[in-house]
Amino acid sequence: MLTGRIEMTDTKPKIYPAEFKESAIKLAIESKQPVAQTARELGITKSSLYNWVNKYSKPKEVMRDDEHLYDKLKRLKKELDKVTQERDLLKKLPRTLQRNPDKVRVDKGE
């Protein structure tokens, strides 16, 4: 026998405008109150606010690190391309030049 009643509703997730999300993130980061309290005051779930904060806000230091890593990645890719081309060129050289580039073999004509 069931004493309680569970009702299923057709609720769709709310879609909030970007401006609202930005304001909520700013408020959550800059206020000294817990994120859960900020979420309650805004009428949204704390998990939504936590997700927005984690997804959309990056500290400036992290952004600078990302730029630095991107530049480093570009430089390393260029270097890899250069070294790969050099390797491919060396593979095409005759074996005698690969072993002793200063020595020249002479056919004695026997």
From TrEMBL:
Coiled coil location: 66-93
Which PANTHER family does the UniProt entry name for this protein?
PROTEIN DISTAL ANTENNA (PTHR33215:SF13)
Instruction: State if Coiled coil is listed as a keyword.
Output: yes
Q: What is this protein called?
A: Transposase and inactivated derivative
Query: Which Pfam families would you find in this protein's record?
Result: HTH_Tnp_1
Acetylation: present as a keyword of the record? Answer: no
InterPro entries in the record: Homeodomain-like_sf (IPR009057), RD_transcriptional_regulator (IPR051839), Transposase_8 (IPR002514)
Q: Name one GO molecular function term.
A: transposase activity
The regions listed as transmembrane in this protein's record are none
Organism name: Rickettsia massiliae (strain Mtu5)
Q: Keywords for this entry?
A: Coiled coil
Single Gene Ontology BP annotation: DNA transposition
